[in-house]
Structures are given as structure tokens and as C-alpha cells.
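Predict the 3D structure for this chain.
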Amino acid sequence: MISGVKAGRNENFELLKSRYKPLLNDMAKSFEGSGAGSKDDLLEEAESALLKAAISFDIEKEGITFGLYAKICVRNALISARRRSAAKKRREAGEAKKQEFKRARVLESFGNMSADEILGRIESSLSPYERRVFEVYFSGRSAKETAEILSSSERSVNNAVYRIRTKAKELSGLSPK
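Done. Predicted structure below.
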């Protein structure tokens, strides 16, 4: 069966997968609460590891069974999935903190002005086109949606957004004029 998987015969892998299904399910279930993903995601990761194990298993080598080798490979793959997930969460948390810090810095640079005063100050520095882009784009629309609404090109919208951000930074004193 392993030789068939190595030769690329899908039916051999399906047979192998059905034989190891209880192991794959148990291992995926045991990692489910670890933050590595849903049981379905983990099961998919486990099946992929089983395939890699079958392809890389040395049939000629004595003293190790495929079952043990597969179990180790699947477990290692699920541990790696958990680590990737944890690293992604740490990166996202770090990015969120960085964005929060930037926002706080921008607001501090405007002194004791209210949000309405800050927006008014920014808007008064914009051209009529930039003001229309500001209203549509910063209400949560994408550049493409904004371009469609304003009957403009996406590139023009992106350029206007860049100019708006530059002007806001200049007004806040965070960027040299």
C-alpha cells in the first residue's frame, strides 16, 4: 500500500487514510482546543502529514513500523500548526498595538482638539475631489467601490487617499512639510 502511495496512486492513499482515520481523528481532536484551528482544519493538516509520511517512509529500513512513523509525523505537523497559529495571533496583536499607538500619537499631536475639530481641520485643507474621496473612502468603502461611486479610476482614488493622509500627518506635526 505504501509503495502505491509513493507511486502516486490515489486509491492507495484513500485506503491508507481510511485505515488511519481513527488515529487522525483522535489526534485532530486532541489539538482542537489548542488554538491551532477547527477540528476540520486539523484533520486536513493530519491527512496531509499522513501523505507526506507515506511518501517519505523508508520501506527498506528495519526496526520502525509505518504506524509509529506516521503517528510521529502527524503529531509534529499538528504541533507546527499550533505554533504557526500562535505566531500569527502574536503578530496580529502586535500590529493592533502598533496601530493603536500610532492613533494615540496622532491624536496627541492635535492637542486638546475634539475629533470633530480635527476632522474639520483636515477637511478644510482638502481639494473638492479629495473631500469627496475622504467622505466616501473613509466611511469604510474600498478604493474600487469609491472609484465606482465617484465615477473615477481606482488609481485616482488611491492617489487622493495618499494626499489626504499626507496632509493629515502634516497638520498633526508628525511629518515634515
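The chain has nine helices and no strands.
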